[in-house]
Amino acid sequence: DLRNELSNLLSVKIDLVDESTLKPLIGENILREAIEI
Question: Gene3D superfamilies this protein is in (predicted)?
Answer without folding.
Answer: Beta Polymerase, domain 2
